[in-house]
Specification:
By secondary structure, the chain is mainly α. It has one domain. The chain contains five helices and no strands. Helix 1 packs antiparallel against helix 2, helix 1 packs antiparallel against helix 4 and helix 2 packs antiparallel against helix 3.
Length: about 170
């Protein structure tokens, strides 16, 4: 990996971290506001899960904007509405899987293990779930959603004859 490539990767990691940090603050504030009020577990069965779904959905929108226009600004697809829509759908899919990782950690902690305090819920979802989900999301955003190799360029396929010549020893 060249020095410029390493520098670009470090820049991406730092900006991804900062965007994620803003999204995390949004997620935590909304989650705790909902979890301790309208979705309090004693008032609503499944309240922590519902609160997390809402807070994560809001954070996904914040992260989409930050990652699209800052972290992956040079890799994003800008050629057509269809490409942008596809990128948005891919971002949402990856984000939802990342959210499912955090939700799974919360569900296991809260319901399977019985750790039900506000602190326990936050540790499960915003520490363990966040760490696992972040690694998953960065990898897929970088290599799938915002991959510069997929920037709307069509791949030329060589005729069979020329491909066999290339593959011949």
């Amino acid at each position: 990996m060249s020095r410029d490539s390493r520098r670009a990767l470090v820049r991406q990691l730092l900006s991804f971290g900062l965007v994620g940090g803003v999204g995390l603050v949004v997620d935590i504030v909304v989650f705790n506001a909902l979890r301790t009020t309208v979705f309090e577990p004693h008032l609503v069965h499944g309240g922590p899960i519902i609160a997390k779904v809402i807070s994560t959905s809001i954070a996904i929108v914040v992260n989409w904007i930050g990652n699209r226009y800052w972290t992956f600004r040079t890799e994003r697809r800008t050629t057509s509405r269809a490409a942008v829509l596809r990128e948005g759908v891919e971002f949402a899919v990856v984000s939802l899987i990342g959210a499912a990782i955090a939700l799974g950690c919360l569900w296991i902690s809260h319901y399977a293990l019985g750790f039900t305090s506000v602190l326990d819920d936050n540790l499960a979802t915003n520490v363990v779930g966040l760490a696992l989900g972040t690694a998953f999301r960065f990898a897929l955003y970088r290599f799938w959603v915002f991959s510069g190799r997929r920037r709307g360029a069509s791949v030329a396929v060589a005729p069979l004859e020329s491909r066999s010549e290339v593959l011949a020893p």
